Structure formats: C-alpha cells, structure tokens
Amino acid sequence: MKRLGLIILAAAVVIAAAVAVFLFKPASLPDVSVAQAALPTGQALIDRGEYLARAADCVACHTTSGGKPYAGGLAFKLPFGTLYAPNITSDKETGIGDWSDAEFVRALHQGIDRQGHNLYPAFPYAAYARMTTEDALAIKAYLFSLPAVHADAPKNDLIFPFNQRYIMRFWNLLFVPGGALQPTASESAEWNRGAYLVEAMAHCGECHTPRNVFYALDSGKTFAGAELQGWKAYNISSDKRTGIGNWTDEQLFDYLSKGHAEGRGSPTGSMGEAVDYSLRHLTPEDIKAIVAYVKTVPPQVSSDQAIVEAEPATLKASIAYAPSGDAAAQGGLGLKLFQGACASCHGWNGEGLQTPYAALRGSRTVNDPDGTNLIQVILKGAHMTTATGAQAMPAFANAYSNVEIAALGNYVLAHFGGRQSAITPADVAKARTQ
Amino acid sequence: MSKPFSSPKTGPSPQTGASRRAFLQGGGLLLGFALLGAGVKPTLAATDPVAGDVTAAFSPDAFIRIGTDGKITLILPNIEMGQGTHTGEATLIAEELEVGLDQVSVVDAPPNDKLYATAALGGQATGGSTSMRATWESLRKAGATARMMLVAAAAAQWSVPASECGAKLGVVTHQPTGRQLAYGALADAAGKQAVPTDVKLKDPSDFELIGKSLRRVDTAGKVNGAVIYGIDVRVPDMKVATVSACPVLGGTLQDVDEKAARAIPGVRDIVRLPNAVAVIGDHFWAAKKGLEALDITWNDGANAKLGSADIMAALKTASEHKTPIMARKEGDVEGRLKAASKTVEAIYQLPFLAHAPMEPINCVVHVRADECEIWVGTQVPTQAQAGAAQVTGFPLDKIIVHNHLIGGGFGRRLVAESVAQAVAIAKQVSYPVKVIWTREEDIQHDLYRPAYYDRISAGLGPDGLPTVWIDHVAGGSVLGNYIPGGWPDDKLDDDAVEGAVKPPYDLPVIQVDWVRQDPPVPITWWRGVGSTHNVFVVESFMDELADAAGKDPVEYRRALTKNQPRAAGVLELVAEKSGWGTPLPAGSGRGIALHDAFGSYMAAVLEISVSSAGEITLHRAVVAVDCGIAINPNTVEAQIEGGLIFGLSAALYSGITFTNGRVDQSNFHDYRILRNNEAPKIEVYHVKSLESPGGIGETATVSAAPVLANAIFAATGKRLRSLPFDRNQLKSDGADKTSVSMMPPLSVPVLAALATSGETGESEPEAA
Amino acid sequence: MIALNVNGEDRSVDVPEDMPLLWVLRDVIGLTGTKFGCGIAQCGACTVQLDGQPVRSCVLPVASVGTRRVTTVEAIGATAGGKKVQQAWLDLEVIQCGYCQSGQIMSASALLERNPDPSDSDIDAAMSGNICRCGTYTRIRAAIKQAAKA
C-alpha cells in the first residue's frame, strides 16, 4: 500500500511538474527567416501589409472612437471583466515598437506577447493562427510604417481566475489551430481565397459563431449567429430561413463591399464597422471570393427570430412621406417619435429618402422581434463611408427616454417588419449598459 | 424689407455706412428723434425731435424720412428677429403720422452706440422685451411731429390756418375747400418748418392702427426665400469658413496637423486662433470636410475634468454656506416664520440652457488694409463693432457693420463674441470670409443660461395662506458675464431675482436673496431672462403651498391677489376660459401659472395627460394676458404661442450638461426641440387695458415650465422640482417591464377611466 | 461637372460628388432661400423638392439628384400648391423669425400636392420633421388647413 501511495505521489508530482512546465515554461519564438526572405521590401511590402491589415480589420479593435488609429484603448466588456485593446503602433514605450518580427508573428499565431505572457482570445489569434507568416510580417511592416503614438491603454480589469494569464495555455491547447490554413484541393481557387479571407483574416466567426462553455467558438455551429456586447451577429450560414441562404450573390457582394444591399438594408454596429474599416477596402475579386466561400458554409438553423419574410402590409400600403391611414392610427408614441426624428431620412416605405443607406425594408434589424440591434442603433447611431460621402445616423441615447425608445422600437418593428414585439423600457435600460 | 446699405448681392462699396451723414442725405423731410421710452428710465427722458441737419443738432437714434417721391422710410434701431418689432414700431409712427402701415418701409439703423442707445438696455441692443415698451411714447410723438410739420407746410402753401387742415393716409386736406396735397409734395417744405414743441397725442379711443392686427411688414420676403439673413450674405470673392474651438471650455489650441485637410479639393486656408482652428474653403462643404480632416491637439486647460455634478454641487454648497446679497426684505421674516402654523420648504434646480436659434452663428467679414466691413445679424451691432475694433486695432469709424435679419436670437445674439472670432479669422486672409458655425459648434460653444439652485420656503397662517415668504436664489451673474468690466461681487445682479423679488401676490413679509456662484462656463441671457428661472420656482412653490393648505390652486391665488388688480384680472379670465374646475379624464391634469414680467401680466392654464409609462402629452393651453395696450394683438398672440412652445420645449427636453469640460449635447438629436406633433392647442385671451404696452416676446416662455410642473402635479400627484422634467419619475410601478403601448395616447385616459371603473387591470395594452 | 435642373433651369456645377445639394444651392448657385439648420436631417430647414417630393438637401449628395428636377423656395410660388401655402402663411401671420419657414413651406406644399385635404395625422407625418424654434407650429397647422381649402 505504501508503495502504491508512493507511485501515486510520484505520478502526481510528475503530472504537476509537467503541468507546471506547460504553464510556465518560457514561450519559444518561431523561425521567421524563410518568410522574411520571401517577402518584397519597401513600399511594396507596406502596401501589401496595409491591404492585409484592413482585411484582418485590426483598426476596429485597436482604436477608440475619436482616437488615433491603432493606439488602442477600446474596451471589451466580457462576462468576466473588461479587456482593453493595446496600442499596436510602433511607439517603443507604449506600443510594439520594440517587437521583433518573430515576436509579432508569435503574437498573431499563438497569442503570446513580447514578454512571453499569454494574451486573451478577445484578440482573435485563434483565427490569425491560420494566417501565413508572410502575411503577418507584411502587416507588421505596415504598422511600423505609421507614426508612433504614445498612448497607454488602460489596464485590464478581470475577475479571478481569468486575470491569471497562464490558464490561457490550456485554452490554446484546445482551441488554437496550428499552422496556416491549407487550401482544399477539391475547391476552386476563388473558394480557397474566400476561405482564407473569412477564416484567417476577417475572423467572421469571432462574432457570428456561438461560443461554447470555454468561451471558444463552437465548431459545430459555425456562423449560426451569436450575441455579444449587446448586439446580435446574425446567422450567416447558408440556411435559407434563418441564415443568408436566400440572399443573392449580388446582395451579399453589395452588403459587404458597399454597406448596403437593395432589399436587405445596411449593416450597423460592429458589422457596420467591419464594412467601413475593412471590407469596403477589399478588391471586388476578394469580396466575390468571400461570397463564394460563405455561401458554402453548411446551413445552421438557429432559433433567432430575426427573419425577413413577406413584406408587411403596413409597409406596402405606405408611401415615402406618409404611413397608410390604418398604420397612422395605430402608431401612438412610437409613430409620433418616428414622425419627428426618423421619417426625414427613413421614410415610411422603407426605401430611404435621401440615400438608400437609410432604407429599412428587408433589414433583419427591423424584423427581429427582440429588437436587439434596433435598440442599439437607435441608442448609438450608425456610420458608413460610401462612394458618395459619409452617411450617418445620430445617436439618440441622450435625449430620448427608455420608454420612448421602446415605443419607437415597437413601432418600427410593426411598421417595417410586420412583427409584433414587446420591447420594454427595461430592455432599453439594459441595452444602454452594454 | 430692404437693407439700408449696399445690397450684399451687389457687393460692398467702401463708402457704405462709413458716414452717418451720407446715410441720412437726401431731399424731403428728415426727422430725427430719440427713441427713449418715457417711464422706462426717467433719467433718460425723451428728447424732442429735430429736423433738417439732424446730425448736428443732437443725437437722435431713429428717423422718419419722407421723400419728395412720397416714399416714407422709418429707420429704427431695434432689430427684427421675428418678434414683430418693426411692425409694432411702424404702427406707432404711422398712427400719428396718419399713414397706412402699407405706406411705410422699415430699415435697420446703422450701429452707433451713442446715437442708438436703447435706454432700457443701455447700448444699442434688442432684448429683454424692451422694444415696444421703450418706444411707446417716443415713436408716436415722432409721428405726430412729422405730421404737424407736413400740415404746417400745406397750410403755409395754401395760406390757411393749420387748424383748418387735416391729414389722412398720407394726404393733407384743407377741409373747408377740399384742396389736397400728398406728403411727398410737401416733404421739402415740411423740412423747413419749425419743429413743434407742443405735440398732442391721440386719445387711445381714436386709434385707428394701434390695437388692430395689421399685416406684418417683414414677412412677405420670408415665404419665397427673398430676404437675406446674415448667413445668406454673399460678397464678391468671398470664401466660406467653418471653425472648431477647443471642445473643452476654456482650453486652447496646441497643435494642428493640416496635411490631410490641405489635400481636400476646395480648401484654401487653415487659420489658427489661440483657442480654435478654422478652415476656409471655396464653399462650406470644402471647409467642413477640411475641418474634419484636421488632426488637432488641444490643451484642455483648467476645465479638463469639469462635470455637471461638480457645478451643481458647488451651487448647493454656495447656497447653503455663502452669505447672500439681500434683494428684498420686508417685515418680520424671522418672527413670522416662528409663528407660522405650518412651514413648507423646497429645493428647485434648473439646468444650463443653449439658445439654439435656427440660424446657426455666422458672420461675413472683410478686413482690408485700413477698415473692416462686417455683415451679420446681431441684437447688438455696437458690440459687434467694438469687438471688431479691438481685434483689428482700427478706430470704430473704420468698422462698418451691416446688420441683417436674424434667424432667431433668444439672447444668443445679444453677445457678439462670434463676430470678434470671425474678424480674427478674416484678419489673417486678404479676401472676405463668411464664417459659419456648424450646429455642433453652436450647441457646444454657446453662452448658456446659467444653472440655478434655489431654496424656497414659506410659513402658512391658520387660513393656509402664506404669512412669510423666503426665496434663496443661487446662481451665476449674467450681468457679470455681460459687462466687459464684470460686476462687483457684493452687488445685486437684478437679473438673478427679477421674477422673484416682487411676485404679483399680497406677500407683505418677504425675503428674497441671492448667492452669487459664477460657473466656470460662459453664461448669458436666454429668452425670458431672470423671470424664466425665478417664476418656475415661485409658481411651482405657490402650487405646493396651495396643496399644503388643501386649497384649489386658482382659489389660492385668488386669495392672494386681492390687491393686485391686473394679476387678478388675468387669473379670472384664464380660469373662465380654460374651464378650470371642470372634470378631466383620469391621468389628465390642469396646471396654472400666474406672473408679471416685462410690464405684462399673464396667467396660463395647461391641460396635459401623463401615461402610465410617464410620457407627457400636451393637449391645450389657455393664456390670458394683460399687456397694456396691445399694439398689434395678432403679434401678441403669435409671441405668446411661440414663447410658450419655446418654454415647454426647454422644460421637457433641454439641459446642457458637461463631462470632462465638454458639452455632452451637440445637435437637435440630443438637444431636443419640441416638434409640431407635440405642440398643444393654444388659445390666447386679452384683458382689455389702457396701460402702456408691456413686453410680450418672452412672457409666455416664463409661464411654460411652472404651468407644466403644476399640470404634472395635477395629473399625477408628483411634484417635479428639477428641469428638464425627468419623466422617469412619473411612470407607475411596473411600467418598466411593460411593453410600451402602440395605442394612441388619446386612448390612455379612456383606458384609465375603464381601469378605475374596475373593468380592466392596470396593465398597458400590448403592442398591436 | 454635375448636371442639375434647378427651378426649371439646366445648370452644370463643378463640385465634389459628395457635396450636399444644400451647399451647391447656397454657395455655388447662389440660391440662399434654402437654409442650413443642423446638417443631419433633424430640423428640415434645408427642405427642397425633387420632382415635387420633399428631401433634406443637407444630407443629399448632389451626385444622387440625377435627372430629378430641383425646386427651391424661390420657385415654389410658381406651383399651385406652393402659391396657396405662401398666401396662407401670410394671411395667418405664421412667420416669426422666418428662418425655418422655407423648409416648412416646402414640406407643406409637397403635402398638399399629394394630399389636397390633409388630416391632422397627415400633417403630423409631413411636418414633424421640420423644427421651428420660434414655435409657430399651431399656425403652421392652421395655415395648411386654410391652404387646403383655398
């Protein structure tokens, strides 16, 4: 018995030692020399990096509203605390100016910082792990070509045990793929390019794929839609009813590259930013590749009710400048608010008066009885850079009450989506905190 | 309406406006007179009119010119900004001049502080509802003087006694013979007549124009885009600028990277000021895009951490601990307080307010080598001139100001700091520049109506009526911000207590004092000035006392206005016309407010309903006014309707707040303005009066917040003491978790009535 | 160069495509009756008509006007509805400062063109996007009704 006890003890010690080594051994650096040699130099490298940095949408997270690009500081409110995106400009003190190529590549591929500390996967290194080393280095070259900004991002504020960075090593073991995405021989070059852009660069799944108990992407539910920071990332799988299976290629192309698709509305929130900062800068070929790939993602039927079905009678009976008589009589407070603050841009026929970017017809946001994104966009507004200048919706949070926004939301869903909804002031109050 | 000087569309001419004599040249009769209101400031009594070389004789501030072509022009120093001043002033002159209102045209006087000093305000300014009050006598006297000279000229020509001649509609008639001469034909001769010293004015019962709702003189060009507001001025070679001042109030410009802005097509120049940057472009769009492309670094300065809560906390501390300046103390205040059978006290808080006139701040300036020409709509042309002189170093007579129609003033254009800024921008370039502020700049760099923290209390006697009344006001000094040299710390700024010091009630034992606590943000007058702030407190509290005494609010006020006939008059009229006391549906309420301000008495009743979610619907307002002789009743009614809506808008929605020294609001989406579908029906009733005309442009704004507060109390039993009203406090329990109804608000009272009859529950109907 | 038809006149303007029609009208063509109020389509002061329909010119990129005919307040009196509205505005003394009234008149005349007998809720729908700081709302409503009867 004593002997058995010793064996168990010894095993425990060995396991503990192994775990300790796993957790605390210094991270090693990858060899990037081959990739370095394969890359162009000078402006050609920087140009390539700029395109890829846009494709990977680094700026969306590493910049605060009104802040300098890539200077960090943007907050991510998670269930276990708040993370702040770091400064990734070439400032030596507060940015990544001292980082070597290998350190940068390690961060993108493994989620490890220059000091060897683990980063949190709010930084989508599980996606960037599939990026080629060449592309990662090009992005670094671009970032280092920009002016250094001296700006300290706030310190993270996470609860225990999530403030212990080393536990991310377990997570990485489980959820971070090793090596760049490899082409699928049976698919076209376009599809493979799309897969690379979607999976390794644009990291669409980070928002659109639900997370499992470990807060990692649920690989069984790819693109089935998820909710984060108070916004819904809708189902973008090829399911015809709850996903984008019914969208035409042209609609997808327009939505991603122009920020508006006829009959589908315009993206707002994080997707609006993704188009504004990233997707609209990509070449038409790359957007087509993304469309080709996304359309082949297997359908996922989600329970989300943000489904665009037949055009509601209220909408059909309205003209741009007036709702139908019946609709007007039913409107109440929501109608009153819409008349004053909304109708001048959106109109009542869902087409948008001055610009199609204000068109609401067919948008999932006005067809979601939960009103999740609708409340958010009323509270926070929207912005899109378009071929004919910037289009913006102001943020109404400060001057309109929870009651008013709830009433407005219910009216908009009824009129533009034909949806019966039950948004309450408490829902709006909650949305304000997200 | 035309401008006195060169039309902006034809471009500036160097001599325009430079010489007042040039401006006044021309044949015919030119009568200058001082527009100083008798009874407004007795120390500045009216000067008799003079004719001929008016500039040599004395300092008139207004003129009647009758050309040999019969054209009658009135040159008036008060600015038209929508309040009907020009129509009212022209009516007074025309009444005594015996011409129709359609026979005269009105132009703005050029700036000249000494010549155009409006007595009641000091300096040439249009504000404080003073225009009609200040000019009631002097304008009629001027009209009568001119008429007498025309009649005298005709009498001389016909060699008949003047007493046989009469004037009507611009024609003098020799009554016995029926001979007639038009004013135009008499104008030259009239100019040579002696100016009469004994001028008799008509008896009010003989008025033919005054008291009638005549068509306004300034509106025809406002329906077809023909009139030129300041923002519409275009002069040759002009460029357009827009400006960004440091977003933190009081901060300065540190550095600006202009590279990206310079690359924008149409951007011409980028101009730095100590606290701002302006981009000048071929058009506003280029300037705006250029401004957006600038990478600006600011020095935030002392206000970098300033928040609204800090300001309100400082006001509260000051109110409680600083020694106040006594505004009025009568009777044994302390003794009465001790003897009171009941005491009531309350704290009221009011926010900073922006003016947000529809026409954003703008100014066209051309700074040449030795003179500066300005085109702007301002309530204070002389201040604009002085500011420009200071910036350019030019003497005043080298600063030419063309005043334009104003697209809303409300007090914002009683200051001319933006003119000085525009001149500072234009000084750096050779061409004329039109500076236009964005709406965001307008909201975030206004001079605000100050915030206030007022403690008010009263002791009630056995009959429930107040035996003692104590109103402690705390807030900044508007005058201290307005007068260049500031205002002495120990001296009362009347504005702070204007509507508190003498409420129109029998309150023999009263104390009103003021603690000065200047906020670290710029402040100025706002429509209704001191009264807007004070009367909210006084009239809300009067309702609280009525409630404490268990009396009906009208009944209570009636008991306190026994020795206030004009106040009692409007009170009774409004009670009658509003159907005070008649039943309303559940969830609805009627409020009342009574006050006197600017020489007018007003009582207002407002009917509202409040939904279970706390949303307020304004149904009907009834206003009774005694503004003395109503020169133009229709204009009086228009000003009451508009003034009330202006005040209701603020009471419901407006408050400027600060975070880290920056204004949180920026445009109409977050500095909300009442819209057409929210406006109540408004009825206005006049108390017939032969008193001198009172001001009317601001009076109803004063009524708005208290009448709404009192209506809310009547509808809900909840007393809201902070502006803007927090509708969250009005919702019933559980409303938060209830879907907000899509039923029209009109059905709410019906449902509430059903609920009280026990047929349905409390819950709101679900969305349709 | 962008081709426009403004108040019946064909014009060609050399301006950026994203320039809002408002500034083309005011700063390039010189029609200053159309007013700048907010720049974000919240106040309606900049309302003009495209083929008779009201739009907020402050957020309308000039390039998207296309072949639609632009009518501004300077020419609205030439339409039957516009003339009636202008007359009712004067008859009822709607106007105070007048700055917002260009937009109010453009919205109101478009309303009457498509709906000769508007109800209160029709007026709410058509006119609540036009802010008036002077508070002339009750008279605007009355004037529309009077114009409808004219």
**Strand-residue fraction of chain B?**
15-25%
* Rg for CA atoms of chain B: 28 Å
> From the 3D coordinates, which CATH architecture of the largest domain in chain B would you assign?
2-Layer Sandwich
Mean pLDDT of chain A: 92
Examine the coordinates and then state which fold CATH places here, giving the name of the CATH topology of the largest domain in chain B. Aldehyde Oxidoreductase, domain 4
Taking the alpha carbons of the first and last residues of chain A, their distance comes to 58 Å
User: What is the largest interface, and how many residues per chain?
Assistant: B-C, 66 and 57 residues
Shape of chain B: globular
What does the main sheet of chain B amount to? 7 strands, mixed
Major sheet strand order of chain A: 1-2-3
Structural class of chain B: alpha+beta
CATH superfamily of the largest domain in chain B: Aldehyde oxidase/xanthine dehydrogenase, molybdopterin binding domain
CATH class categorisation of the largest domain in chain B: Alpha Beta
Oligomer class: heterotrimer
Helix percent of chain A reads: 40-55%
Number of helices, where a helix is a run of at least 4 consecutive DSSP H or I residues of chain A: 19
- DSSP helix fraction of chain B: 25-40%
The total beta strand count of chain B reads: 28
Total E-strand runs of chain A? 7
Mean pLDDT of chain B: 86
Secondary structure elements and pairings:
The complex is a heterotrimer of chains A (434), B (768) and C (150).
Chain A: H1 2-24, H2 33-38, H3 42-55, H4 58-61, E1 75-78, E2 81-84, H5 101-110, H6 125-128, H7 133-145, E3 157-158, H8 168-175, H9 189-201, H10 205-208, E4 226-228, E5 231-233, H11 249-258, H12 269-278, H13 284-294, H14 313-316, H15 325-330, H16 332-346, H17 372-380, E6 382-386, E7 389-393, H18 402-417, H19 425-433
Antiparallel strand pairs in A: 1-2, 2-3, 4-5, 6-7
Helix pairs in contact in A: 3-7, 5-7, 9-13, 11-13, 16-18, 18-19
Chain B: H1 20-24, E1 29-33, E2 50-51, H2 54-57, E3 62-66, E4 72-76, H3 85-97, E5 104-108, H4 131-158, E6 165-168, E7 171-174, E8 179-182, H5 183-191, E9 239-245, E10 252-257, H6 259-262, E11 267-273, E12 276-281, H7 284-293, E13 295-299, H8 308-321, E14 325-330, H9 333-339, E15 342-350, E16 362-367, E17 372-376, H10 381-392, E18 399-403, H11 417-426, E19 433-436, H12 439-444, E20 452-460, E21 466-475, H13 478-482, H14 494-497, E22 510-516, H15 529-548, H16 553-560, H17 565-578, E23 588-597, E24 600-610, E25 616-626, H18 633-653, E26 658-659, E27 662-663, E28 681-686, H19 699-716, H20 747-756
Helix pairs in contact in B: 3-4, 4-5, 10-11, 15-19, 18-19
Chain C: E1 2-6, E2 9-13, H1 21-29, E3 47-50, E4 53-56, E5 69-71, H2 80-91, H3 101-114, H4 120-127, H5 137-149
Parallel strand pairs in C: 1-5
Antiparallel strand pairs in C: 1-2, 3-4, 3-5
Helix pairs in contact in C: 2-3, 2-5, 3-4, 3-5
